[in-house]
Amino acid sequence: MAGPENLAYVIYTSGSTGKPKGVMVQHRSLVNLLESVQQELGINQRDILLSLTTLSFDIAALEIFSPILAGGKLLMADPMQEEMQSLTMRVREQNVSILQATPTLWKMLAEESWQPCPSDLTVLCGGEAMEKTTAEQLLKISNTVWNMYGPTETTVWSSIYQVKKVPEGITPIGRPIANTEMYVLDEQMALVPVGVIGQLYIGGIGLARGYVNRADLTAEKFLPNPFSTAGGERLYYTGDIAKWRADGNLEFLGRKDYQVKLRGYRIELGEIEAALLQHPDIKSAVAIVKEDEGKEKRRLQAYLVAAGGRAISVSELKSYLRTNLPEYMVPSQFVIVDQIPLTPNGKVDRKSLSAQSPDNFVTEGAYEAPRTPIENTLVTIWTNILGLDRIGIHDNFFVLGGHSLLAVQVISRIRVIYPVDLSIRTVFERPTVALLAEGVESALVEKIQTLSEEETQQLLEACGL
User: Fold this and answer.
1) What pLDDT, on the 0 to 100 scale, is given for residue 337?
2) In the beta sheet, which residues pair with residue 333?
C-alpha cells in the first residue's frame, strides 16, 4: 500500500528555461490538494466534471481525481480534436457542473455561442494570469468563478480566489489552500509589507520532493524555510513577483524573468500589462523590452489586441497610463496585433513577439511619406536610429521610442549632412520629421545668407539639394 511519502507521479516541465525537468510529487501532496479543493468548492457526488486537460499538464490530476474522490462523475474530452462549439454543447447536454481550463482556452470557449447551463457551472481558471476581459466573460457564463494559482513544484494549485465581480485591476490569486504557506520576500528573504512587491515563495505539504536526478537544481529551488521552527521544512522559490493586498489576498504580477532594468529604472512588465488591461479599449496586452543594436536602443514596447475592433489613440492611451504608472514605465511604442502568439502549452510566447519586426505601430495619424529631400534624409536618419522600417513625416519621435540619448544621435547625424548648428532641444520642440525639416531648412537659409553665390551653390550640392 502506498504511503504518504511515496511518489504519486513524476511530471516533466520545462518552465522558463526550456530544459525539461522531472518534478516528483508525493501522495500526501496530491491528497492535500484534492481534499482542500473539494472542501473549498464543495464538490460532492452530484457533480459532473468534464476534463479538457492533456495528461502531460499537471492540472489534469485535479480533474481526474476530484470527482472520483467525491463520488461524482468524470467525463473526458479533447479540445484539440473537438470543435469549441461541440464542447459547449456537451457542457449543456450532459449537465456538466465543473469545468477547468487555462485563460486562453476559456477565451475560446466563452466566445462561442455559450448558453446558460441547466446546472450551476463552477468555473476553474488557472495556468496563467486572468485578465480583466477573461473575468468579465466568465462571470457572464457562470456565477461561480475561481481563479487558481500554483507551480507544478507545489502540486497543481497553491492558492484559490473566488471572483465575484469584474476586478478593477489585477484579478487576485487569493489565499493559500490548506496546509500551505505563501511568503512575499525581498532579495534578502525578509518579509515585505502589505502592498510592496516582492518574490513569491511557497511552503507546506504541497511541495514536491524535488527534481529527478537534479540534486543541484533541487537545492537551488527548494530552500530551508527560515520562518519555520520545525527542522527540515522547505520553501519553493517560484520565480514569480507578487504582493499582498490589504484584504489578505495575493496579486500575481508576473515572472521575475519579466523584471527588467531600463535606463536605471527597475520595471515590472506585469505591472504595465495590468495597467493596460484596465483600459476599456484593450482586450489583451503584453509588454516587452525591445532590443536593437545596443542598450541605448532598448525601449518599452506594448503589443495590444483591441477590444471589439476599437481604435486606439496613442495620446489618449499614454495619458491614461500616466495616471496609473510613473513616466518611465509608460511604453514608448504600441503595436496592434490580431492575437497574442502562444507557446504549445498555451502561455504567451514573448520570444516570438520580440523577434517580430512590427509594421503596425499605433501612431497619431495616417502615414504620410517624405515630400522634400530634407524630409527624406531625416526619415532615413530616424529609421536607422529607431530601428524601424517605416516612419511618416508626422510621426512623433518620442512616441516611436525615441528618448534624449537617441535625440543626441539625431542631431549629430544631421550636423554631418547639413552645416547647421541645431541643439538637442530642437528635437523636443520639433518632434516630427515635418517640423524638424522646417527647422533644418530655416537654419540652412540663415547659413546661406552669410555666403556668396558660389559658396551657396557648393553648399546646396554638398547637401544634395
Assistant:
1) 81
2) 301
Residue 389 main-chain phi, psi, to 5 deg = -85, -35
- Cα-based angle 49, 51, 55 (whole degrees, multiple of 5): 145
Residue 38 has pLDDT above 90, yes or no: yes
Q: Model confidence over 90-127: pLDDT tens digits? A: 888 888 999 998 887 787 777 665 665 555 889 999 98
Does residue 195 contact residue 170 with C-beta atoms inside 8 Å?
no
pLDDT tens column, 429-444 = 888 888 888 888 888 7
Q: Tell me the CA end-to-end span of the chain in Å, nearest whole number.
A: 90
Q: Which residue has the higher pLDDT, 49 or 416?
A: 49
Q: What was the pLDDT predicted at 265?
A: 62
Q: What pLDDT digit, counting tens, does each position of 290-335 carry?
A: 765 444 456 788 888 888 777 777 778 888 888 888 777 888 778 8
β-partners of residue 361 are 335
With H, G, I as helix, E, B as strand and everything else as coil, classify residue 147: strand
Distance of CA 425 to the CA centre of its chain: 35
57 Cβ contact partners less than 8 Å away, ≥ 6 residues apart: 127, 345
Sign of the Cα torsion 187, 193, 196, 198 reads: positive
Q: Residue 455: what pLDDT?
A: 64
d(CA 25, CA 22): 10
Distances (CA, A) of 312 to 131, 282, 353: 19, 8, 20
Calpha distance 5→178 (Å, rounded)? 18
For residues 36 and 146, give the distance between their C-alpha atoms in angstroms, rounded to a whole number. 14
CA distance 437 to 415: 13
CA dist 238 → 15, 223, 276 (Å): 10, 11, 25
> Are the C-beta atoms of 331 and 301 separated by less than 8 Å?
yes
Q: Which helix (H) or strand (E) holds 315?
A: helix 314-322
- The backbone region for 194, taken as left when phi is positive above 0, alpha when psi lies in -120 to 50, beta otherwise, is beta
How open is the CA angle 310-314-318, to the nearest 5 degrees? Answer: 115
335: phi then psi, degrees, rounded to nearest 5: -125, 125
pLDDT in tens, 52-72: 887 878 889 999 999 999 999
Look at residue 263 in the predicted model and tell me its pLDDT: 59
Q: With contact defined as beta carbons under 8 Å apart, do 178 and 38 qualify? A: no
Check if the beta carbon of residue 173 is closer than 8 Å to that of residue 153.
Answer: no
Helix (H) or strand (E) holding 216: helix 215-221
